[in-house]
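Support request, please re-run this one:
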Amino acid sequence: MTTKKHTILFLVGGDSPERDVSIESGKSMYEALKKKGYKVIVADPGRPEIPPTEDPAKMFEASQITAEPPIIGENIFASRAAFLEYLCGFEKLQFDVVFNALHGGVGEDGTLQACLDFLGISYTGSGALACALAMNKSLSKHLVSSRGVPLAEGFVIKEDELEMADIEQRIQDEVGFPVVIKPNQQGSSVGVSIVDEPGGLHEAFSKAAPLDRAFLVERYIEGTEVTASILGNEALPLLEIRTKEGFYDYRNKYTPGANEYLVPAPIDAKTTEAIQTSALRAYHALGCRAYARVDFRLAKDCRHYFLEINTLPGMTASSLVPKAAKAAGIDFSELVERILHLSLETR
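Re-run finished. Output below.
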């Protein structure tokens, strides 16, 4: 493993509904990289009026994950254009690698990764194709299912198919209530609803509709949420999430004290091995690199069902990957540095 201390362009914030999560993750990861002795230049693609800087206090000031995702302004494309202009002059900036701490949107769906590939800039995490596949829940489920990873029954509804009577009938025929309804390409449980009966369909789709053009409808699996973090080609200890109220939605994910996290998860050895095997199969099916987090539902009969794979999982104080890494004896600063090294080794 190389010992060179690279100069890092650290990306945080951005213009997705997960912007606040990115900033909170970014603060911790920035401090870890500085602790390890790296020169870190911080840039926020969502705030081009703030020049990239080695003193990012202004970018991190007053950052807080609120109970609801932020509403993003209308100047998205102007901000992106300004950021791309900056990237195109990267040779003058003298950085070695981009550390991507963005979450959701173009920072995670392969768009940014493709731009960096085009410019020949090294970056952390998975490549453009893996990110695009992982962000598209229906495509990723199709691929992981081909590797023998179990799924809950479900189907995709497009924005021009939102006739509630037709959707209700299809649910009754193919899935059965209760169901989970979610945008096909969002993270952090943004826009997700659990619908127990037909009367809740309109509200659920109204919640999801502004966020995407396609929506996933799946059978709700009674049980618990279990995550498998992958570092390199190693599955870290499983983590079980128990919410104190409701389900593991955006509000619960980022409200301190709203959940109980059990790691290693209190699951028998056979089930643990089965889930970790499925996680690695999903990770390799999509071609992920360096690290990722794979989420499952674990039913009461101990059968597990793939939910999604996150190529840029949260790294806040309450995030799941750092908890799993800690259970494996990897402290936070070491985890961040290993993500950097693993990313460079696989490029």
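The radius of gyration is 20 Å. The mean pLDDT is 88.
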